[in-house]
Design goal:
Blueprint: E1 4-9, E2 27-28, E3 31-32, H1 33-44, E4 51-54, H2 59-65, E5 72-75, H3 82-88, E6 99-104, H4 112-120, E7 126-132, E8 148-152, E9 155-160, H5 167-170, E10 174-175, E11 180-183, H6 184-190, H7 207-214, E12 220-223, H8 226-229, H9 235-243
């Protein structure tokens, strides 16, 4: 039994990609973007059977497309946000599992080294990686709509999603690439505390950072290179990502 379980969130639809194809299946150099991430995970030997969270309307095509890999799938029946998506996987995770890593299927370039670094830096209940950019111009505009890391006395206090951010918060150049590691006992005890009082009316996984800070937990963080952490949310962002390969 692995002491660490990996959850990949892949329930997003391809709406902003103007396609019926699930976003994570969009190809980069002939390979679905999620496959790059899955191959990095298997290189780590951390988890021999990661869990992929899908939505009801894309589960068949994603399962079929990834049938060559040793994966478990769980269906997020309602699209109620990233916190809810992680909750959907709870029944597939043994109580013996100590740590849970959460990754997003639309981040194709995350390396096995970074996944291992995330686990190695995990000392407390919550750890994460962050990205720092000098500005949001050129290829870095892919990061503009990401959540901002808010620090207090240099400690991570919370993550504010772009849609909920003031103009002042949007000036922050440290952003959230959505690479998290949680102590599983802490995660399941606190994920039920998430509230949907935000612009999206969703349960944000990122709100767990604020909950941890309020519990006086130090959130371990390490930096990841922006080019590696780049995510894809639109056709324009897909072309930018392709140009970096």
């Amino acid at each position: 039994m692995s002491m660490t379980k990996i959850i990949i969130l892949a329930a997003g639809k391809g709406v902003r990609m103007n396609s019926d194809l699930p976003k994570v299946l969009f190809p980069i150099n002939g390979k679905a973007m999620i496959e790059y991430l899955i191959e990095s995970i298997f290189k780590t030997k951390i988890d021999i059977c990661p869990i992929v969270v899908v939505s009801p309307d894309n589960q068949s095509i994603i399962k079929e497309s990834l049938s060559n890999y040793n994966l478990n799938f769980v269906v997020q029946e309602e699209q109620l946000g990233t916190g809810h998506a992680v909750s959907s996987a709870k029944n597939l995770i043994s109580k013996d599992v100590k740590n849970i890593i959460v990754l997003y299927g639309d981040h194709p370039f995350i390396t096995s080294d970074s996944i291992e670094k995330l686990l190695e830096s995990h000392k407390n209940e919550v750890s994460m990686m962050t990205v720092k950019v000098e500005d949001f111009s050129d290829w870095r505009k892919n990061f503009y709509h990401w959540g901002r890391i808010v620090r207090k006395n240099d400690k991570i206090e919370k993550i504010i999603e772009f849609r909920d951010a003031s103009n002042e918060i949007k000036e922050i150049k440290e952003v959230n690439p959505a690479l998290f590691c949680f102590n599983s006992f802490w995660l399941w005890n606190n994920i039920e505390k998430l509230k949907s009082d935000n612009n999206q009316k969703e349960y944000y996984l990122t709100d767990l950072i604020k909950i941890a800070f309020e519990q006086n937990i130090t959130i371990d963080s390490s930096l990841i290179d922006a080019r590696e952490a780049i995510g894809i949310n639109s056709l324009e962002e897909l072309e930018i990502a392709k140009s970096l390969r």
